[in-house]
Specification:
The protein is mostly helical. The chain is built from 5 helices and no strands. The relative contact order is 0.08.
Length: 116
């Protein structure tokens, strides 16, 4: 099944029409959103005690750190009015190294079968 985003919204002539856009939108079930009932006491307790699984936490931390590394790899530019650019370059280098070490540590940590 193709996702909505994979479908072009242009007609064959290359013109976008509102009717065509409306036709391709996903239907929204408003009744399902309104029909949500309050949680019972047992459900509230279960939800408050629920903890995210460790693999999910590790995957999120890995994604965030890899995203930061990629953003730093693309490049960042400082304010031209800053003084002591050497200090900012040193801070950038430390952040780069610390992020690389954290990604390596997360990779090693995620290889171990941990039990909770």
């Amino acid at each position: 099944m193709r996702r909505l985003i994979d479908r072009p919204i242009r007609r064959e002539e290359g013109k976008v029409t509102a009717a065509k856009v409306e036709e391709r939108r996903l239907p929204i079930n408003l009744n399902a959103a309104k029909a949500a009932k309050p949680l019972s006491l047992a459900e509230q307790r279960a939800r408050s005690r629920w903890q995210r699984p460790l693999p999910a936490i590790l995957a999120e931390a890995m994604a965030v750190n890899c995203g930061l590394l990629e953003r730093l790899r693309v490049g960042v530019h400082g304010n031209q009015e800053w003084k002591n650019l050497e200090i900012y370059q040193a801070v950038f280098n430390e952040l780069w190294e610390a992020t690389k070490k954290q990604v390596e540590a997360l990779e090693i940590f995620s290889r171990v079968e941990w039990s909770e």
